[in-house]
C-alpha cells in the first residue's frame, strides 16, 4: 500500500456518479451538495479526518465480497473460492472534485468461524456494504443480521449503507427481476442504496464479431458512487465542525437528506463567502 502514489487517471471524479435505482438510493440529487463543490473549489475542506474513509464489506460466505473488491482494485477475477480468513484490506485512491481521497476497503470473512475476528474490525466505518448473492434468497435474508452486527460497532446516524446483489451474470433477466423486487424492499427497510453487480469478466460480443473483455458489470460505477457519497458526507461533516460554524453559517446534517439540500438551496448555492 502506498498512499502517496499519484491518483490513477481513471480514479478522478469531477461529477457525482448516479444511483442505480431511484427507489433505493441514498439520495437522487444530480450534483454534489453545493457547499461541498464550493469548499472544494476553495480548498476549504479541512485537513485531516475526511481524506480517508473506512468502508467495511460484510455478507454471507461465498457471496463474492473478495471478488468484488479484487475486480475493482486489481481488475482480476478468480473463479476458485478461497475463503477470506478474518479480514483483508485494500486502499484505493481517488481524486474527488480536485481533492485527494482514499477508500480503505475492509473485506471481511463470511464464514461463521471467522466472524468473531472479522467483527473486531467493524468499528469506525463511514460506510457499510452488505453483499448478497442475487441467486440465493437466503443470503438476502441474512443481510439484515449482517447489518445489525456491523451497526453495533458504528453510529447508525452517520454511516452510509449499501446493499449489493452479486453474481448478476448467473441470473436470467426473469430471475433477476424477481430477486430485485425483494432486494429493493430490503434496501428500503435498511435505508440502504441498492446495487446489482457482476465481478466476472465476460465476452461482451459473440465470437463472430469483436472480442471485447468486459470487466464485470456495475463494479466501477458502484465504487465510484461509494467514494463520491462518503466524500460528500465527510466534507459536509467537516464543514459543520469547522469553517461553517466560524462564519455563523451552520450546515445542518439531518438524517433526512432532502432537508440537507434544502438548507443549501435556501442559502443560495452560489459559493462560499
Ligand atoms: N459467476 C460469478 N461468480 C462469482 C462472482 N463473484 C464471485 N464469484 C465466485 O463466487 C465464489 C466466492 O467468491 P468470493 O469473492 O471468494 O466470496 P466471499 O464473499 O469473499 O467469501 P468469504 O471470504 O468466505 O466470505 C468464487 O468461486 C468466485 O469465483 C460473480 O460476479 N459471478
Ligand atoms: Mg472473501
Query: Helical element count?
Result: 9
Give the class from helix and strand content and strand pairing: alpha/beta
Question: Taking strands numbered 1, 2, ... along the chain, how are they ordered across the largest sheet?
Answer: 1-3-4-2-5-6-7
State the separation between the terminal residues, measured CA to CA.
38 Å
Q: β content, as a range?
A: 15-25%
Bound molecules: guanosine-5'-triphosphate, magnesium ion
Described by the principal axes of the CA atoms, the overall outline is: globular
Helix content: 25-40%
Give the biggest beta sheet. 7 strands, mixed
| Average pLDDT | 85
Question: How many DSSP E strands?
Answer: 9
The SSE order reads EHEHEEHEHHEHEEEHHH
Weakly predicted, low-confidence segments: 205-209, 247-273
